[in-house]
Amino acid sequence: MIAMADGFNWISGKEKLKTYRSPTGATTTFCSDCGSQVPDAEPIEGIFESPIYPVPVGTLEDDPSMFVREHIYVGSKAHWETIGGDAQQYNEMD
User: Fold this and answer.
1) Which residues constitute the domain of residue 79?
2) 20 with 30: CB under 8 angstroms?
3) Do 51 and 80 reside in the same domain of the chain?
4) Where are the strands (E) in the chain, listed by range?
5) Which end of the chain has less Cβ packing within 10 Å, N or C?
């Protein structure tokens, strides 16, 4: 899920975030208490018109009332992976 930065607010726990940076520069942020993946401490800029926070859906307490809009990078999915539903599929990100 993607949240626009101007509509996202950390209520608490930001001081518990720990970020791992891979050799390629990709980052993943975790809660230092429980290890759950969480949004990055700062929004990402340059992907969309406004800064965003990618939000792992598993961190939400309530049903986000969302649906899958599209599947990207299906050209490199595992051969055994089956994609269900009617959402548009793209071999790469357009």
Assistant:
1) 67-94
2) yes
3) no
4) 2-4, 17-21, 27-31, 37-38, 52-54, 70-71, 88-89
5) C
AA letter at 80: W
Dihedral sign for Cα 49, 77, 28, 38, please.
positive
- 44 contacts: CB under 8 Å, gap ≥ 6: 51, 52, 53, 54
The two three-digit tokens of residue 43, written as one number: 């929004």
> Which three-class secondary structure state does DSSP give residue 27?
strand
Q: What is the pLDDT of residue 65?
A: 82
Tens-place pLDDT, residues 42-90: 888 887 888 888 888 878 888 878 788 888 899 999 999 999 999 999 9
What pLDDT does residue 76 have?
93
